[in-house]
């Protein structure tokens, strides 16, 4: 089985990506090779995914897959977007969720639309001139208070109308069928013929 390094230090993501890829690859985490995280200097999810994938391929010597993802809120013109992980100034889920609730205080439900965005980038080696990039999107709306214990990040605030619950109330296998990450991964598997 081919080795694939996941270019993420986020345990929530790693768990989901492992569940989606474990049947096809021997999956390893970049943290086995380096604790140093590249600076996410890109202006888009795609650029950041590519730079994380290149960094992981460089430190590991293996093909690498990166996920850059986040939440784009309509009322906030797409914020926190690529800054989702440090929206509150700290890389902390509870603080980020609180920051989002504050930004949307008093905003009614019909103006609380949002989407989760995921860009996946796969490189065969650090200088690969042809990264494979796939995106996925998941529509929802931002709740007024956190709900649910599963998942990570903004899941407790992300209401999924089709399921009538937050994404933190979905079990892992349901989230992994519906999410932005699942949709990007579906495209990636098609591109790879898996
Ligand atoms: O399914 C999700 N459910 C809830 N929240 C999510 C999800 N997917 C991304 N998110 C949030 C978490 C974090 O605030 C940001 C990702 O930021 P992002 O830079 O891509 O990841 P990160 O810094 O946590 O880990 P790493 O860069 O090592 O992969 O979006
Ligand atoms: Mg990051």
From TrEMBL:
The active site is at residue 68. Its EC number is 3.6.1.66. It catalyses: XTP + H2O = XMP + diphosphate + H(+); dITP + H2O = dIMP + diphosphate + H(+); ITP + H2O = IMP + diphosphate + H(+). It is an enzyme of class 3 (hydrolase). Substrate binds at residues 8-13, 69, 152-155, 175, 180-181. Transmembrane segments: none annotated. Mg(2+) binds at residues 39, 68. HAMAP family: Non_canon_purine_NTPase. Belongs to the HAM1 NTPase family. Homodimer. NCBIfam families: RdgB/HAM1 family non-canonical purine NTP pyrophosphatase (TIGR00042). Pyrophosphatase that catalyzes the hydrolysis of nucleoside triphosphates to their monophosphate derivatives, with a high preference for the non-canonical purine nucleotides XTP (xanthosine triphosphate), dITP (deoxyinosine triphosphate) and ITP. Seems to function as a house-cleaning enzyme that removes non-canonical purine nucleotides from the nucleotide pool, thus preventing their incorporation into DNA/RNA and avoiding chromosomal lesions. This is dITP/XTP pyrophosphatase. It comes from Thiopseudomonas acetoxidans. The gene is rdgB.
């Amino acid at each position: 089985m081919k080795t694939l390094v996941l270019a993420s230090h986020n345990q929530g993501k790693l768990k989901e990506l492992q569940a989606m890829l474990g049947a096809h690859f021997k999956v390893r985490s970049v943290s086995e090779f380096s604790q140093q995280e590249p600076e996410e200097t890109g202006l888009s999810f795609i650029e950041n995914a590519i730079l994380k994938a290149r960094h992981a391929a460089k430190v590991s010597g293996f093909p690498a897959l990166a996920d850059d993802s986040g939440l784009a809120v309509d009322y906030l013109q797409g914020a926190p977007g690529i800054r989702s992980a440090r929206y509150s100034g700290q890389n902390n889920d509870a603080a980020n969720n609180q920051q989002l609730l504050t930004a949307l205080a008093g905003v009614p439900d019909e103006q609380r639309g949002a989407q989760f965005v995921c860009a996946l980038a796969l490189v065969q080696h650090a200088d690969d001139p042809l990264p494979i990039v796939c995106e996925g999107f998941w529509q929802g709306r931002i709740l007024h208070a956190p709900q649910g214990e599963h998942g990570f990040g903004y899941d407790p605030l992300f209401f999924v109308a089709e399921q009538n619950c937050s994404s933190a109330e979905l079990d892992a296998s349901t989230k992994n069928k519906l999410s932005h990450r699942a949709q990007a991964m579906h495209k990636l598997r098609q591109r790879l013929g898996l």
